[in-house]
Amino acid sequence: MTSDKARNRELQLNRLSKKTLNFFMWVFRYALIVTLAFMILYPVTRMIHNSIAYPRVVGMTGSMWVPAMISFDNFRVALAVMDWQSSLPFTMMNVTVIMLLQMFSAALAGYAFARLKFRGMGIIFILVLLTFVIPSRFLFLPQGVLFRSFDPLGLFSFFGNGPIVLFGRPMALFLMSGLGMGIAGGLFIYIFRQFFRGLPKELEEAAYVDGSGVLRSFFTIVLPMAKPAFLTVGTLSFIWNWTDPHFFAQFNPDLRFMSLRIQTFDLITGGTPRIHQYMGMARTAGRLSIDVTTLPPGNPAYDAALMSASTFVSIIPLIILFLIVQKQFVQGVERSGIVG
After folding, report:
1. Domain boundary among 63, 95, 110
2. Could you tell me the residue range of the domain that residue 58 belongs to?
3. Contacts from 254-258 at CB under 8 Å and sequence distance 24+?
């Protein structure tokens, strides 16, 4: 009897310890989820808070978490300073062209690494991976030198025209994107390679038996099956090119790019006086109804609010794009083999 009681007491202690352990694991799990959610959502909520706060209450203690007064004047100023009517279509056109070039070049290179066997393929693929492992800023200097005096293999000098200057022109961005050296070009090649390796080879082998070549098989058989990979790469390329200011500032510093236009709100390079200058021009052109003289001068909190509003305005097209392709994008990521 004594042994049975001791055994029952031991079982109860084990059950209690398991319940206690499960309870602490449950607390830890949800605490981790809440912490991560706060870290992700806090910048977004802060941006929205600063964007809708009335200019006079920005930075006040009573408006730390919830604005004491709500106003959309910050959005009006941001739209005017960013020259939304011209910067939006200009950015959309250039980013779309870059996206298409990156998809095409990455698909060709990815298919070559997935299906073709050639000498030195492993070394070349390692070099491709290094293009997105190494920070892109380390490549800006040699790339800038290349496009300041663009003369591949001396061909332009051979025909008597000499090197041409592509630095600061859209052609520099298009060439780099079309040749796999755009933003995250190595990563996109890797995504296509992983996707093509997961496709069955039987259809291509049957096409080879019927006399089809590599390129014909690629365009007629492989590409129609690669829609998930194209959607994944296209979405990532569009978002990263849209939001990255360094790539455009280095090779084509045109202020009509929205990512560069946001730099207008940079506190270090001018702050409120510079914003007032742009706003005065916009008001003269009839695109702004707010009176510039009524805004708080030299207020860093107000400058930060305008930057938040301009950032929110600039990512609206990206939010719409992601809402449209969300389901297909997640499926494409899963089938591309870059998770798990």
Report:
1. 63
2. 2-63
3. 254/90, 254/170, 255/87, 256/83, 256/86, 256/87, 256/90, 256/91, 257/87, 257/90, 257/91, 257/94, 258/82, 258/87, 258/88, 258/91, 258/314
Q: In sequence order, what are the residues at sequence separation of 6 or more whose Cβ sits closer than 8 angstroms to the Cβ of residue 140?
A: 246, 250
Question: Taking Cα atoms as reference points, which of 327, 150, 315 lies closest to residue 240?
Answer: 315
Residue 39 lies in a domain: yes
Count Cα neighbours of 166 within 13 Å in the Cβ-side half-sphere.
Answer: 18
Residues pairing with 70 in the sheet:
53
Q: What is the DSSP letter of 30?
A: H
Q: pLDDT (tens digit, 9 = 90+) per residue, 229-287?
A: 898 889 889 998 888 877 887 777 777 788 887 776 654 344 555 566 666 555 554 55
Instruction: List pLDDT tens digits, range 123-163.
Output: 888 888 888 787 777 777 787 777 777 777 776 666 767 77
d(CA 238, CA 102): 10
Residue 39 and residue 138 share a domain: no
Examine the domain organization and report whether 11 and 151 are in the same domain: no
Tens of pLDDT, residue by residue over 203-238, are 787 877 777 778 888 888 888 888 888 988 898 899
Q: Which residue type sits at 71?
A: S
334 contacts 292 by C-beta, under 8 angstroms? no
In terms of domains, do 166 and 26 share one? no
Contact between 262 and 245 under an 8 Å Cβ cutoff? The reply is yes
Residue 77 tokens, joined? 């100023």
For residues 124 and 66, give the distance between their C-alpha atoms in angstroms, rounded to a whole number.
54
The structural domain count of the chain equals 2
The answer to whether the CB of 84 falls within 8 A of the CB of 313 is yes
For residue 11, the tally of other CB atoms under 10 A from its CB is 10
